[in-house]
Write a structure and sequence with these properties.
Elements (H helix, E strand, L loop, with lengths): L1 H22 L2 E4 L2 E9 L7 H16 L4 E6 L7 H9 L4 E6 H4 L18 H8 L2 H14 L1 E17 L13 E3 L4 H9 L3 E3 L6 H6 L5 E5 H6 L8 E17 H4 L4 H23 L2 H10 L3 E4 L2 H15 L2 H10 L2
Parallel strand pairs: 2-3, 2-4, 6-7, 6-8, 9-10
Antiparallel strand pairs: 1-2, 4-9, 5-8, 5-9
Helix pairs in contact: 2-11, 7-13
Length: 332
């Protein structure tokens, strides 16, 4: 009987140790300490950017000799972006794909990176993220908000309005309830261009349009296609109002637990994979349009100049006019 009890206790202790290691931020494998980072995104599995995250995971595992592992969780499996950001700030071993609009909730001026028609292409947005002004925002995020930017050069293309009626000018958006992320810069921009902004997670958009809770959304081709929005929306109205550049962030507290060599590896490889992934996505716009047309969507050209003029109101309302001029000077 004593022997049986002893074996039972040993088994329970073994289970406890195994459970503790699987749930913690780091664990020991032999003589080396390993770290696990959980990568969260609202994007669906199969999205080309998610493919980039999977590639990054393999590279980190290989180049760290198994000491740094990244698990990828698409389709908001870990929760909303806002929730995961707050977890990261608290020191949880999570990363999240985010944008300037959401980061603007912590460092207000960085929100301009998500403002309408700030630039017309990825190359100019990239120049902004490499400039001194943007670097000062990254420092403020780390020093005052415990948010570490790993990279901010992930590109997902231009965003367009998705509706069941053709949109030619801003006046055609009047009264339409359009889903957009909830950050102020996004909401004010959509409002300035004529629509009523509705904040909700991307994963709820398909059903919301289907049930008539919203009249449409605004998104980039990669998400529109991979989320099958073409099943509930007829028109892609090519406004190209946002150039969607994204960043991966982690909590500064968790980042500081990494040895210096793993910190450097994470920073270098995240930027490198993002650069290659951005080039791939930038070249896929026509391919996605053809795929959506094959599914019955119509690609509608619009009066872009009229939308640019309307969008200027957002800069005035948000107090970003002078900052816009400063940034334009910086990237010349």
């Amino acid at each position: 009987m004593k022997k049986a009890v002893g074996l039972g206790v040993a088994a329970l202790l073994s289970m406890f140790v195994m459970t503790g290691c699987s749930e913690g931020e780091s664990a020991s494998e032999g003589d080396k300490e390993t770290f696990t980072l959980k990568m969260s995104t609202q994007m669906a599995d199969g999205h080309p950017m998610v493919e980039g995250f999977n590639e990054l995971s393999e590279i980190l595992d290989e180049k760290s000799d198994g000491r740094l592992k990244m698990e990828v969780y698409p389709s908001a499996q870990l929760g909303s972006d806002e929730d995961v950001i707050e977890q990261a700030i608290q020191g949880v071993n999570v990363a999240v794909l985010t944008d300037g609009g959401r980061m603007g909730n912590y460092v207000e001026d960085i929100g301009i990176i998500g403002a309408p028609y700030l630039t017309d292409n990825y190359e100019d947005v990239l120049k902004i993220t490499q400039g001194d002004t943007f670097k000062s925002w990254e420092k403020e995020l780390a020093d005052e908000n415990d948010i570490r930017v790993l990279s901010f050069n992930w590109y997902d293309g231009a965003r367009h309005f998705l509706t069941n009626e053709p949109i030619e000018t801003p006046e055609d958006l009047d009264g339409l309830r359009i889903r957009t992320p909830g950050a102020p810069v996004w909401s004010e921009s959509i409002k300035a261009m004529g629509a009523t902004p509705i904040a909700m997670p991307w994963t709820e958009v398909y059903t919301a349009i289907q049930q008539g809770a919203i009249d449409g959304a605004e998104a980039q081709h990669t998400s529109t296609y991979s989320s099958r929005i073409y099943e509930v929306v007829k028109y892609v109205n090519k406004t190209s109002h946002f150039q969607l550049i994204n960043g991966i962030i982690v909590g500064e507290k968790w980042f500081e637990t990494l040895p210096e060599d793993l910190q450097e590896l994470l920073l270098v490889e995240t930027k490198a994979v993002a650069e290659e992934n951005a080039k791939m996505i930038a070249g896929m716009s026509e391919e996605y349009e053809e795929k959506m047309k094959a599914e019955g969507m119509e690609i509608n050209e619009v009066d872009v100049d009229a939308f640019k003029e309307a969008a200027d109101k957002a800069y005035e309302i948000l107090g970003l006019t002078e900052l816009r001029e400063q940034i334009n000077e910086e990237i010349k």
